[in-house]
Amino acid sequence: MAKFTKRQWLTLIVISIADFANAICVSLQAPFYPQEAEKKGASPSEYGLVFGIFELVVFIISPIYGQHLNRIGPKLLFNGGILTTGTCAIFFGLLDKVDGHYPFIILSFLIRIVEAMGNAAFLTASFAIIAKEFPNNVGTTFASLETFFGLGLIVGPTVGGALYQIGGYTTPFAVLGSALFVAAVSTAFILPVHNNNDNDAHNTGGVMKVLRIPGVMIASMSIIGTSMSIGFLQATLEPHLRQFKLSPVVLGLMFVINGGTYALTAPAWGWLCDNYWHPKVATVAGCFLVMIGFSLVGPAPFIPSTITIWMPISGLVIHGLGMAAQLVASFTDALRTSISFGFPNNLETYGLISGLWTSTFALGAFIGPSIAGILLDKIGFRNGSMFIVLLHMLVGVIAAVFLSSCSRAPKPYVEISTVENLRAPLMESDRLGGSRSVHPNGRGQGVPIDRPGGMNSLIVCNSYSNRAGAWSRASYSGRYSHSYGSIENKRYLELTT
Known about the structure:
Elements: H1 6-27, H2 33-39, H3 44-67, H4 69-72, H5 74-92, H6 101-133, H7 138-167, H8 170-190, H9 207-211, H10 214-241, H11 248-275, H12 279-297, H13 310-340, H14 347-405, H15 423-431, E1 436-440, E2 446-450, H16 458-468, H17 470-477, H18 489-496
Antiparallel strand pairs: 1-2
């Protein structure tokens, strides 16, 4: 990070401040909105849906933002998202002036939906800008953003509760919403503009196309599983801890433990993914840590020990370590894997992966609390927590098998001119283990031939890698036939006459 340019430092600072302020505005209503809603006659299921609809909208809208990021412009999407979130925060603070049960609930839903659209725009754009500005330090800088966002989620309810106590319902929304406006103004002047260039002129395809890549699919599974574990604890931790008769202050601190651990350790995981580890190694490690953490929080049915307060505390710390590893590694892994499978290394791809990350996280955050409530009612916390343990065991095993079998991604198509030494690619291929060679096609181009490095990975890798290989990509474009090296007669005559 010491080698960052002035532009990179300014970009990182303003996005981090905006991320922090945005997280505060998104989370500040948690301590006192339910109480205000009950005064208006709203039931727990009604105001619970007000919180749940936020994640559902983020899940739906984020891929759309990501797919059209290059057309909209990341800076415009970024600032528009902040302004929308800040405006909605202020409007949300005026809901206590609304009379009547149904007008209150309907306006709550509408404001929360628009706020979710702004939050999704901000997050999608910020992740894409980071990937564009820091191509060699994506993991570290992404983790830094997540640190500030995590701190905002911790500070939001705390500061919001204090301001509510001082000035009533409207005060926290007015103060913190205005702070987000200030952050938006600073980014409007400081944040660089990223224009399209010639290399970005073609379409990368939609989310479904990138999800067909096995490595990206596994990263998405990791994100969903991690956000489900977070949502599970949000919905069930307080009832589980009632047995200890904790004071409100101590109970609030219990909710901060895993988020605080995540915020503090995320940069370390990002640094490891950037410099030493394959991201899927961090994913496997994160799954293992989450399994241990949830086994201690319960504790798991197979642990015969009587529960003490130190067991859930230790479990929450370990869970924070695991979720940091998974969330940081998943973004880095999805971005690298999609580019290695032929997606262009440009802003359009960054937006696509950013939208995918935001969307899948929101999906898990929506599903997690819903399943948690059902499991808590039916089988209790100790048995219900085994659902998260088994889910992460499944994701960890899949990631480990993929890492051992399919770690070699297909190499992109390479063009060579007629004056280049054709022996150079062959010599390089020999150095890489003889898995690749080049046949000249008579027009000054070379077509790489992908051959599997070993039969042991054919079962897992073959179905996708054949389609993603260089020969198959060339045949899709119509330039080469499926006869592995020959050129169709009609096309050949057109090119040579």
